[in-house]
Request: fold
Amino acid sequence: MKQPARTDTVEYDDAPLRPFHAAVAAASSGGVFSDGYGLGIIGISLSLAAPQLGLSPVWMGLLGGAALFGLFAGALLTGPTADRFGRRPFFAYNMAVLGVLSLLQYTVRSGAELLALRLAIGFLLGTDYVVSKALLTEFTPRRF
Reply:
């Protein structure tokens, strides 16, 4: 016996916005906020940390630009890897690791330690740029 056609199904791209879509949009915006804060606050932080860490102008320049270089590298290298192994694991753990690395900045004792952390933080922010926007595009119906 043939089953009657379901009338409550809707094509994904015709579906209305749901709380899930809002949650994905909010989560993917967190990285942009973190990026703006992380890149902007370094100038103020370096001016306060320079005397305590003994930073020269060269070190301050390296530290100021490290996150930008990391951001470039993270965006460039993570996209193909996330496409191959899946975006969800990157998205799920990226901000948690970023939070831990951000807190570790309070424990540095040298410019080199801070440079390594700033590069890693930039890399994670670049990862978030690539992965979060792709997930947002994937999960949002086309008309939105």
